[in-house]
UniProtKB/TrEMBL annotation:
InterPro entries with a match to the protein in the record: Methyltransf_12 (IPR013217), METTL2/6/8-like (IPR026113), SAM-dependent_MTases_sf (IPR029063)
Family note: Belongs to the methyltransferase superfamily. METL family.
Protein's name in the database: tRNA N(3)-cytidine methyltransferase
Single GO biological process annotation from the record: tRNA processing
Leading EC class: transferase
Domain of life where this protein originates: Eukaryota
Gene3D superfamilies attached to this UniProt entry: Vaccinia Virus protein VP39
Ranges where the Methyltransferase type domain occurs: 125-227
GO cellular component, one term: cytoplasm
General function of this protein: S-adenosyl-L-methionine-dependent methyltransferase.
EC annotation from Swiss-Prot or TrEMBL: 2.1.1.-
Intracellular or extracellular location(s): Cytoplasm
Keywords from the UniProt entry: Cytoplasm, Methyltransferase, S-adenosyl-L-methionine, Transferase, tRNA processing
Length: 280
């Protein structure tokens, strides 16, 4: 186990460690996640079935699972990445109101002061967007003129890289710095305004004690019938087994050599977090 001083350092300076990660790797570490649309077709609901089938076949040929090593954050070998395959996917849907009312609400603007994307009819938020490996494929694939995508990260370096990307279009996307665990920070959109919230390898990067509150806050941003889409690390996959003695911060929560952290979930723990948020 790490010392109490180190535990405090990794928490207080978490944003610094991620800033350093993105300063070193910029947008060259993770590949764009085109597999998203076969895992989560809700991200491109206007695409036809044949397009998604073709995309699925292409992804099967090219995909290498997205994993990070326990050491300096460098890539795993291809062989090791194929072993690191027990990531958990999850969809949690906010209870809808009666169907006919939901259908009407989905096409209405949210009644509040002006905010980015206020005129959109389909709104997606990605939390922990990094350099845009989810956001840009969504914008490229989803041609819905009513689409607006929000994306946030608590690394200011990552958000800078998103905003300076040639694919970044402020008329369809809004990138902002945000700490998921800071209850004093406000989101730029009102409650019950989002159709989808995406969390890809994000929840695992925060202290387990703060996960529940973070998800409860996010759930309040969803429209009735809206959903959260999650993919994250599963307990005892290869990425966890590679960690060495001294890298464990607490039960199933580890620190990598570059100071970034990761938690490994069971399906049961994830269910508890999201079901509680759904019912609050």
């Amino acid at each position: 186990m790490c010392s109490a001083t180190m535990l405090v350092d990794y928490e207080v300076n978490a944003h610094k460690y991620w800033n350093d990660f993105y300063k070193i790797h910029e947008n060259g570490f993770f590949k764009d996640r085109h597999w998203l649309f076969t895992e989560f077709p809700e991200l491109a609901p206007t695409q036809n079935e044949n397009y998604l089938k073709d995309l699925h076949l292409e992804n099967k040929r090219n995909e290498v699972p997205e994993c990070r090593s326990s050491d300096s954050g460098s890539d795993l070998t291809i062989k090791e990445q194929h072993k690191c395959s027990t990531s958990l996917g999850h969809k949690i849907q906010k209870p809808p109101v009666e169907e006919d009312v939901t259908q009407k609400l989905s096409h209405l603007m949210v009644c509040t002061d002006d905010f980015p994307g206020s005129s959109a009819t389909y709104r997606i938020l990605e939390v922990g967007c990094g350099v845009g490996n989810t956001v840009f494929p969504i914008l490229q694939t989803n041609s819905d003129p009513g689409l607006f995508v929000y994306c946030c990260d608590f690394s200011s370096t990552a958000i800078e890289l998103v905003q300076t990307n040639s694919e970044y279009d402020p008329s369809r996307c809004f990138a902002f710095v945000h700490d998921l665990c800071d209850e004093d920070q406000h989101y730029p959109m009102p409650k019950e305004s989002l159709d989808v919230i995406v969390l890809i390898f994000v929840l695992s990067a925060i202290v387990p004690d703060k996960m529940q509150k973070a998800i409860c806050r996010l759930s309040k941003l969803l429209k009735p019938g809206g959903m959260m889409l999650l993919r994250d690390y599963g307990r005892y996959d290869m990425a966890q087994l590679r960690f060495k003695k001294g890298q464990c911060l607490s039960g199933n929560f580890y620190v990598r050599g570059d100071g970034t952290r990761v938690y490994f979930f069971t399906q049961g723990m994830k269910n508890i977090i999201f079901i509680f948020a759904k019912n609050t």
